[in-house]
Amino acid sequence: MSTSQSPRRPFTRRTFLSLSAAGGLTATLAACGGGSSPREGAADPAPATGDGGASGYDGPNVDLKFWNGFTGGDGPTMKALVDEFNTEHANIAVTMTTMQWADYYTKLPTAVTSGNGPDVGIMHVDSVPTNAARNVIQPLDDVATALGLAESDFAPVPWKAGLYDGKRFAIPLDVHPLGFYYNKDVMEEAGLDPEAPPMDNESYMSALESFKSAGIEGHWASPFPFTGGLSLQSLIWQFGGNLFNEDGTEVLWAEEPGVKALTWWADLIKQGYSPAKVDQDADYVAFKNGENAFNWNGIWQINDLKKTDIGWGVAALPNIGGTDAAWAGSHQFVLPVQKAADDNKAQASRVFLAWISEKSQAWAEAGQVPARNSARESQEFTDLAEQSELASQIDNLHFLPSVPGIGDSMGEFDKALNAATLGGTDPATALADAAGRAQKILDDNAKKYGG
Predict the structure, then answer these.
(1) DSSP assignment string, 43-83
(2) pLDDT at residue 424, as a whole number
(3) Strand, coil or helix: what is 113?
(4) With contact defined as beta carbons under 8 Å apart, do 348 and 118 qualify?
(5) CB atoms within 10 A of CB 181
(6) Domain ranges for the chain
(7) Helix 75-88 × helix 343-357 angle, to 10°
(8) What is the per-residue pLDDT for 448?
(9) Could you tell me the pLDDT band of residue 9, with boundaries at 50, 70 and 90?
(10) CA angle, 85 as apex, 79 and 87 as ends, to 5°?
(11) DSSP string for residues in 337-387
């Protein structure tokens, strides 16, 4: 269900995903892959013109539609920013419409084709290349040039991820990485120092043994994409591997690093550190209930945990495989293609995008890491202790390659995780079988999208 909010009312302000919405991320991750072929008969979007919003907007009143999927605790923060923008820009009225991310990715291409799409949108980084290839979103090189934006202004990983086919299609707003949550109460119960979470494989396994001796299953291994799949991806990078080659044409997760990573994850069950069958989100619920000690989860859980009365802490992911690495996502601004050209709306949309991009420090309070270096390095952000801790991973974060439809193949990756974690399939076999199926998807997508 979507909600529209009137822009001309008086100003009134995972979490990214609360526990109740956590299942939505699974749908989102699946949806990010796209899966539809390029729009039939669609022409390449015309090169962007104008000054990218640098000179502001002094034209007649315009109404802009802004779509996003911020239905959780981050929604009020974005709504407050939209309201603030509207009060400062008398001739631009932005209406924000929110919907579940899965619905957003389904509705957006159809709306754009019919000429009823939004003027501004938000997109997860792994959806950008697919929608660029399908001519759903337009290049933003003019915005980056007008604002003097460069890689030096942003964390390199999300900045580069907005590029597709040599053009910029997205401006990064944030990154939301995986982090290591530890229950201090449970650590004390097992005789461990609650202020010294284990940060390497040796100390991590030692801690799990201590929990086991105390009758506690310390780290529950989720067989689901959220968050088991995100954890497994992180482990593969930590063991020195990759999911794909650099240009996204070859599946690599069945190589030795992938086998080591999935073996480590499945062994959490075999060695008695985790229950054999963990339901969706049960690992996080158990963490909040003091039934386990360690949980690898997203930054979006910070605000949710602040509502509890348990003793907890958060840190960068432990280095299990020898290389610091973690999964991350990123929200990025996009401008959908417009069926009918409107120079006034085009300029006003760029003014809005530029303005709100500079407000990333305020956005951090919703439980995100700002993509802009200046915001991340500010005292205001440093004072957000938990977000700052997870931001320490900024140079070690990983995204999928910027290839249209690459997310389609990740469904096979998740099947390998499930087979090894729930079904007891040998990790090497599970990964190899999944890689074979995923490779066919990559090959088919290369033909579909003209690669």
Answers:
(1) PPPPPP-S-TTTT---SS-EEEEEEE---STTHHHHHHHHH
(2) 93
(3) helix
(4) no
(5) 22
(6) 3-173+330-398, 178-327+405-448
(7) 120
(8) 92
(9) very low
(10) 105
(11) --SS--HHHHHHHHHHHHHHHTTHHHHHTTT-EESBHHHHTSHHHHTSHHH
Rounded to whole angstroms, the Cα distance separating 1 from 184 reads 38
Angle between helices 410-421 and 427-448 (to 10 degrees): 170
Q: How many residues does the chain have?
A: 451
Q: Is the pLDDT of residue 194 over 80?
A: yes
Residues 37-45, mean pLDDT to the nearest whole number:
42
Q: Which residue has the higher pLDDT, 154 or 221?
A: 221
- Is residue 138 within 8 Å of 413, Cβ to Cβ? no
Return the sign of the alpha-carbon dihedral for residues 153, 154, 155, 156: negative
Work out the percent of the chain whose per-residue pLDDT is above 90.
78
Whole-angstrom Cα distance, residue 130 to residue 110?
14
Q: Around Cβ 213, how many Cβ atoms within 10 Å?
A: 10
Report the b/e string of 253-287 with b at 16+ CB within 10 A: bbbebbbbbbbbbbebbeeebbbeebebbbbbbbb
d(CA 107, CA 174): 23
Fold of the domain spanning 3-173+330-398: D-Maltodextrin-Binding Protein; domain 2 (3.40.190)
Check if 3-173+330-398 and 178-327+405-448 are the same fold: yes
**What DSSP line would sit under 246-306, residue for residue?**
TTS-SB-TTSHHHHHHHHHHHHHHHTTSS-S---TTHHHHHHHTTS-SEEEEEGGGHHHHT
Question: End-to-end distance of the chain based on CA atoms, in angstroms?
Answer: 36
Of the CA atoms within 13 Å of residue 411, those in its CB half-sphere come to 15
What percentage of the chain's residues is helix, strand, coil (to nearest 5)? Answer: 45, 15, 40
- Write out the DSSP string of 8-53: TSPP-----S-GGGHHHHHHHHHHTT--PPPPTTPPPPPPP-S-TT
Instruction: Burial-class residue 62 by CB neighbours within 10 Å (0-12, 13-18, 19+).
Output: buried
What are the pLDDT digits (tens) for 182-193? 999 999 999 999
Give the fold, CATH level 3, of 178-327+405-448: D-Maltodextrin-Binding Protein; domain 2 (3.40.190)
